[in-house]
Specification:
The radius of gyration is 24 Å and the shape is elongated. The protein starts with a helix and ends with a helix. The chain has a domain of 41 residues. It is mostly helical and 62 residues long. Helices cover 87% and strands 0% of the residues.
């Protein structure tokens, strides 16, 4: 049990004194970047899926 308590204390110290947390502005810009990248990837996958669907329909109708 002593090891667990020591682990919790060290974890708390590391999270409060050693970790550099991003500012609110940096966090918002990172979140916006992730959302934009997600939309771009989703659109790309939609286009690829749509193209393969029509390609497969063309092949199967031969």
């Amino acid at each position: 049990m002593r090891k667990f308590i020591n682990y919790c204390k060290e974890s708390y110290t590391e999270l409060t004194k050693k970790v550099t947390w991003p500012t609110w502005q940096k966090l918002q810009s990172s979140a916006l970047l992730v959302m934009i990248a997600t939309v771009i990837i989703a659109v790309f996958l939609f286009v690829v899926d749509y193209a393969f669907q029509h390609l497969m329909q063309a092949i199967y109708t031969l």
